[in-house]
Amino acid sequence: MARIAVRRAVVPQIGKAFGEAANDPARRDAFRADPVGYLREAGIAEDSLAGLNIVLHEDDEDTVHLVLPERVDGGRLRANDYDYLKMLGTMAVLGCLKPLS
């Protein structure tokens, strides 16, 4: 489902890079200025980023950006595959950083 091919071992590095950008104005500015370079610095391989248009959206107290996937597995959707639907729902709301009830 990942749109950028990464090794699982790199995911914590990416999380750290995102966290630093969220909390450090200088890192946030670096991410804004060059999203591809920032992700490369976080450990994503160049060939995984080649040809992608990376757009950074930033949430604030009043704005939440939801990302609609390019496409999903239609068969699993029609079958009401609980685990798949749970994964899609998690992806939709996980970045919102609001408590789940």
Structure report:
This protein is an all-alpha fold and 101 residues long. It is 50% helix and 0% strand. The protein has helices at 11-23, 25-33, 35-41, 46-49, 74-78, 82-94. The chain starts with 10 loop residues before the first helix and ends in a 7-residue tail after the last helix.
Shape: globular
The succession of helices and strands, N to C, reads: HHHHHH
Taken as a percent bin, the fraction of beta residues is under 5%
Rg, Cα atoms, Å: 15 Å
Taking the sheet with the most strands, its summary is:
none
Ranges where pLDDT stays below 50 over 5 or more residues in a row are: none
Mean pLDDT: 86
Question: How far apart, in Å, are the first and last alpha carbons?
Answer: 26 Å
Helical segment count? 6
Q: Count every beta strand, where a strand is a DSSP E run of 2 or more residues.
A: 0
Structural class call reads mainly alpha
Helix content: 40-55%
